User: Fold these one by one.
Assistant:
Number 1:
Amino acid sequence: MTQIDNGELATAINDDKLTEGFLRDCELRRLSPETIEGYKSTLRIASQVLRSEGLSISKLDKESLRKILEFLVNQGYVYNTLLNYFATLSGFCDYLVWEGWTEANPVVPFRKRYVRQFKSQYDPERKLISVDEMTMLVNSILDPRDKAIVTLLAKTGIRRGELIRIDTDDIDWVDQSILLKPHPKRSNCLVFFDDETARVLRRWIIARQSFEIQNGCKALFINESGERLQRHGVTHAVTKHAERVGLHNPISKKVEDHFTPHCCRHWFTTQLRRNGMRREFIQELRGDARKEAVDIYDHIDKKELRRAYLAAIPLLVID
């Protein structure tokens, strides 16, 4: 068994206390549970990297930040992931400054000097599969929950975080639509689904009844414990099946070899565009933020939007 000296133990305890304080601060600032969970995961990995080098996340400086960047680069992380990691570390340092634990945030100048340089090298195109490959992927999934997850992601283009917040009573089975929870990144919360998606969802709703639901959980997608499925659960549900049919290579460092939940959003957008849907309709279905002042007054008729959606979304001929 590896022995930990008193100095290492004290550092670990102090790191954990500051991290817990930061996460509580995030809760007070009303950040979403998904965002806080992402921060927690990032800080845990960064702490492990630094402790292996005899450093502490509570004493971030140029040297420790270089160690974290080297680790991420060696792991083959893409540019956006690098940005997310250092955005979290910057937020953590802002908290330390606010609480008086340190005098300045070293992440901001570090990110400007080093991280931006990776944009061209670490930001390739996401994987885009064909309609036939999407059909093959969905029909290869026997688990009713996972089949519903992949189908809904592909047919609506919603984000992973938006999917896990859907409750069963958010679904309008008559209009075949879902009212998503409000989110700062989304302008339009209404999305549609077609007949074959409805069949897949109904199969999952029936299977869901066999689970022991915890505390009356209303989440559409639950885990094996009967609780709301989390972000990592969605990622696992997508990647494990994509890997099985040869669409996802977990050991490759090339982003184009990975099929993730966000690839379904990329697929959704591309198929609607290829099938001739108007640009503003695609933006509305994606929930993209309105960038022009005039866009606020550009009201899109929901019935017309639904007709356009049904005309453009590909039929997958799901078993």
Number 2:
Amino acid sequence: MEDESVEDGGTLHQDQALNELAANETSLLALVGTLLSLRTLPHLALIVIASTLFYFIANSNGGEDTAALGFISFSTGYALTAVFSTNTRVRSLITLPETSENSSQSRLKRLFTSFKICVLPLSISITVGIIIMMLFSQDSATDLPAIFPVGLGSLFVIWAIAQGVSFSTWASSISAKKLPLKEPSSGSMVLMTVTQFSIITSMSIVGILIFDYLYESRWAPFESIVSNLGFLLLSIASFAATVYWTRESRAFSLKDKALKKFANRWTLFAHVFATWHLLTVWRQTVMSQQTIEIFIEEVLLMMFTVFMAIWTLTSKSVSKEWKLLSNENALPWGLAFGYAYAGSVAMIATALNDITYVMVAGHIIAFLTITWMHKKILRRVLKQHDIDVEVQRIVATDRSIQPQPTKQEEHAEINHTNNEEVWQEDKDVKWDGEVGKTIGEDVEWNDVIEMDD
């Protein structure tokens, strides 16, 4: 394989698929700053308060419809706010102004008055809720068709899949950055597999020891490993199955230096994320984890999922096509996703009477998604690599079959070019002005040409 890398402005151009992945904007800290800005903090406080309230309503007797109405209304209200928040006037209504140190208001008063930025999305949400009740209510105002709570609950599957896809987009983008030059390479599949197996197994053992110590209040490494041997076997089996499933793609990546490094990074990311989901499933079903711990953990997971979804939609590879979402309206879109996510969890938890099974199902779906994305991204990159190699081969073949000029033809071409340059550089020719006596001055034209009447 020839070295076809080109340096242009400091960017090394590899295969098109790697370029597309590396082009994604990965400034996560900037997005965190946008979503957690103090000037929009009341919106985050409102989603915590409202979601908790709706969750308890959903678990009360016959409160599923009311809770579903609340979650859907708030999600739609913030989505509509996001659509118009690119307007400067609208954005000023949902964002706090810069605070002045000389403000005479107390901190407590400023805290309460800061919630005025929630008035616009709240008003839209209430309006949406009233319209839904007017159009779909049956026996009572909040008695809605089953499609509302069921439909909201079914979104949980979408959110679990979105979590895996969003993480895959971010991790593959990180893996595609700062790759070496595209050049032939070699490597050992066994060495790569053994190295990754050692890392994954070590992390699994460390995770078991830490959580067993937190839940059982003991530090007994041997007993902890033995009592959780099932998870280690499950983790190893998952690793072995994924290694076998992706063996052809990873073997091909060893032929190119850039592809090899990308495949090694991306494969490790995928294994770590998948193993963490398996460990979470094991903790929530086998180990002595409390419900409140699961709830807190899943709230953080919800934030992570929404955050990664927003990052994916605002990344360079997607934002050109997804015109409605940008960094300017990332927060209201995130809140809309958050209400929908929380609503789906509440509806499923109500149906199953236990939030633990809901969370376990979500982790299993995310695990399957990341496993599927693992091979898909590898195949996408390698397929594009094959296309690039074929194009390079055709171009090289076309150049090699073109007839080469002889030395005489080359000399003739050079002389022809020089003559053209000399003719064009002849500056002694005078095309206008006085040109001297002409041959027509002494000729009597009446004698030469007889004009007929």
Number 3:
Amino acid sequence: MGGGYYEGDIAERLRSSTTDDQIFRSQGMGARNAIDPTLNIKGKTRECRDSGEHPRTTPIVVAMDFTLSRGDDAKVVFSKVPMFFGQIKLRQYAAGPEICWVGIGDATSDKAPIQVAQFESDNKLDDWLAKMWLEGGGGGTGQESYELAAYVGAYKMELDAVTRGEKGFWFFLGDEGFYPRLSKEQVRKYIGDDLPEDLDSAVVFRELQKKFHVFFIYPRKPWTERKSDIDAEMRDRLELAGGRFLDVDIRASLRWDTYDDLDLHCIVPGGGEIFYSNNTVRKGKLDVDRNAGRKETRKPVENIRWAKGDAPKGKYKVFVRNFAFHEDNPRPIPFILELEVNGKIEKFEGVASPKGETSEKSDVTCFEFNYDPNQRTVSQDETDLYRGYDDTLIRSQWESVLPKENILMIDDPRSIVDTMLGAIALVSGSSIDEYLGDMESRGQTSQRREDTTQALSGLAEQRSTQSVDLGNLPKADSKQVKKRAKIKRL
């Protein structure tokens, strides 16, 4: 794909006349509830081809985490696309840049864990980015499906640059780890390839690096703040409706996104059942019941919980029933059920009434489990449950598959694009001092330059001590002399 040229002045006028949030809403990003079909990679490939217009292309992939913890980064990137693309061209950091946006979620819980645009070099870049769905999900485990995106880059992208013996650039933007194994079922479901077995994710990342210089840009964030982001949607709905989220032995919370009346049921030890007309059994309580009998909200939630110390020992069964359709056009109802037991949280993603069923025929069993109030141990305290969000552990996992200098830690998410540009500049032959001079010339603050310097320090040191074959890097035409004097500020 690709062709044409990015007109930065047009893009800047678009951004100056309205806010990024307005652009996203008007073009669909953040307002849709399903993946745009053109971003569905299943059964497809993406191509970055040379042409008469662009005889030497450099593929650049920006793969963004669209879960709750990092979804807003896409808006930061959107606001800076003119600067990003314009600086690559003006500073000649890379020849013939072609950019592909990739959206990443969690294939264990999200509807759209992988979204892949086409490679473009003109203003269609804005259109593709605006088509992305900020699903805002995530599985709450400290891991997202980065390995699924890596598989797309390694096996489903055809790049003329690689044929010439060059590499493109791949940037993961996120703050979590990846799953150690790439599921063959997920590859079949979302990409359409049949694998004989699950793959070691390290193998997939190794293949990706044969085609791209791969970086992970990691905004630092305390694990407590990450936990808050992951829990935010369910918690916000519950607390707005008056439900109990904290200090529980057991909590089953249901959310969906229609006016329809889904009901949450729980069979408790001894055979009693908690539901809308029997809301308290053995100290367990249904404390929120939305859309009961009327079109109340398209952000409904229901909640059954036992306060800490109240849940009886024994077997539990949690299921969802569609009591009634309330939408004008009844259709299957996707839902998420979050179960917390002794501090451990699990999620179930299901669909109610796939064939239009209601009442008992629509029942979907989500969890069956045995509860023992003595099961909670030191290893299950809150800090341990969310240990997957620890900076040290996340960085260590990424360093097992990428060079440590390619893990770019930043303090301010607004430094994302500056850091991407710096990585491209350094790999393509610029020094860190030259790049910082470029940042200063376009008016970046000393704080932003310091954040970027810290992120790129390892890469800068590695590049300065390495013998670089500039003829094998995706730089601009060698006949052109890079002008580092006065370049107009974007």
Number 4:
Amino acid sequence: MSQPVNHTSPEDVPREVVKTRKKSVLREYIEAILVAVLLALLIRTFVVQAFKIPSGSMIPTLLVGDHILVNKFVYRFTDPKRGDVIVFKYPVDESRDFIKRIIAVGGEDLHIKDQKIYVNCKPPAPSCRPIDDPWGKWEERFGVSESTSVKVPPDSYFVMGDNRNNSQDSRYWGFVKRDKIKGRAFLIYWSWDSERDGPFWERVRWSRLGKLIY
């Protein structure tokens, strides 16, 4: 013979059992939330952090309103190098974060003359050639010849904004120490043109979403 099915109504369950089950569900939700928050904090602290570009100093690479992701652990395994776009603590005020491009590393002699960059050689020596600089945007300024000559100290970096004539960088406030670097920018995940009129979808720079930063 088949066994009878036990149909137990909620009224037949002891109050102590119902109360215990409610506590168990609540505890599971709390634990899940705490784990999610902890993971988010760990990721933000050690892996990836989001930043917003507030100025035009990195035009054309980065525009005002770009939202970027920064790899915070990459320099645990490799050294920063020329061409990397980095986020770092501003040497004059470490409560602020700046973003610039590394132009010269520790131990290198740097010379900037007539909107050209020379590393470990000084013009007008016949064998001295400027470095390949596909990132820099210089404005033509009649009668103005910028000149900079420095030696980069060990564990330090000379950085510049890609918008070369409109960037406060190492030419004005000095070098960035390695331990002040937060990470390397690698991706634009959102871009918003706040100065453009029109509906929401026209103000999003769709072509920039998911763009890698070089």
